[in-house]
Amino acid sequence: MALTVAQAMTLPGMRMRLLAGRAGLSRVVRWAHVSELADPVPWLRGGELVMTIGLGLPGDPAGRQAYVERLSGAGCAGLAFALGEAVTAVPEEVLAAADLQGLPVLEILTPFIAVTEAVARWHADERVRGERRVVAAQEAMARAALLSGTSGILRALAEHTGGESLLLDPQGKPRAATPAGERPWHARALEMARGAARLSAGVLDDGIQAVQVQSLGFSGPPTGWLAVCTGSPLEWHARMLANQAACLLAMELLGVRAGRAKAHAQRGALLAAVLDGGLSPRQLGELCPVAAAPYEVVVTAAPVPPEAAIEALEEVAADAEELALVCARPEGTVFVLPERTPSGGGPEGAGLAAPRWGAELCGRLGVPGGGCRALGLDELPSAVRHAATLAARGDGYLHVDDLEASALLRDAFVPAAAHRFAAAALRPLREYEARHGGDLVGSLRAYLEAGSNLETAARRLGVHRNTLRRRLAVAERVSGRPLTDPGHRLQLWLALSLGDLVPPG
Known about the structure:
- This is Purine catabolism regulator.
- Residues 440-497 form the PucR C-terminal helix-turn-helix domain.
- Residues 9-121 form the Purine catabolism PurC-like domain.
- The chain is an alpha/beta fold.
- 49% of the residues lie in helices and 16% in strands.
- It has 17 helices and 15 strands.
- Strands 1-5-4-3-2 form a five-stranded mixed β-sheet. A five-stranded antiparallel β-sheet has the order 7-6-10-9-8, with helices on both faces.
- The protein is rod-shaped and about 130 Å long.
């Protein structure tokens, strides 16, 4: 609350009479100051009630008019005369200029020192009243934080500052506001947040409204932005309450983030169990909420810290963050997100490719990555393998569908038929393994992957070359055709590597 000239005239013990400048009675009195200088402006800061007996008044009418104009231009609150010492009446030029400038001119019958003490006492009392209001408001915001969280803090802040409040996410998107809905000043707050430093506060005061924007967080990138709009000028207690609210909101958001991190860790452990074969995809869907298929599977070229992964997920895919799966793997960090729907619902938008999460995630994390599509949870392990292979190239972000050969090869197969082909081609070998043991399928794959080099394949398997030679001989006998037959080799190779060659989706 500010002390105006009209209020100063009514302070206890004050005897003043308005002579001119009624339009300026709402001017704010910051201090009461005595000056008999012909030009006191260089010694003033604005907001002063200048008291004088008239010794410094210029002797000519033009000079007296300029005297008033200079005081008004310097932001003085008013001009008060004690008559009878140097002048018996205020000159007409001063009164006329005061009316034009809207600068109150008073006749004062109270000692100057009494006026100064009264103004100082009012400001001291107002400071105490303000501190009490701030304490009460801080207690109210703390209670609101416990009872209603973010919305309660914003509501209490708006109530106790007499303004409006707005919470922005790290990208500057509105998350909550009091009152609800978009307001004209929100655009200014958004512009200030986007142009501010990582951790900062700023005020934009146009003389009508004061918009204060403050970053949330105690270290690192802001977790959001708090904006408060109040009347101009911005009062000190509004600044203090905004700081208090920013701390409460930062702690609230940290608690929310900690809860999300714990939930992601639990969901990530289930995803890791599926990728390791210890949990079936069906069980994953039963144990935790999962978004509807299809999915975009993203793998970074190297593992990233869990905090950074979740932070990037919140910033890039805020709408899909709650149903996303994240886990760290030896080959890199794995993200499973619901696939974005194509843009445009009508005929004109049909067929437009939806932007992928992977490019934005990898760009935010600053690491290469790979992506693959999965039509269901059962395709996640295969999608992770293909995405990790692309991520290992280190060429920015690559998606399986952007590699024409892989996409065309996948489209050339009917998944169910391809599975039946692989099962039929490998059935004799698997049946022999089931009855007699031995790793015929694994040995055959290692041999073919090594380019039929017996020494290399045996070294990769960790067995003697004679052991591998005996296994291959059994595989030839069981399958009924020699491995030197090109057609037979191709059939076996396709059956063994179909899951790796043909990406899911």
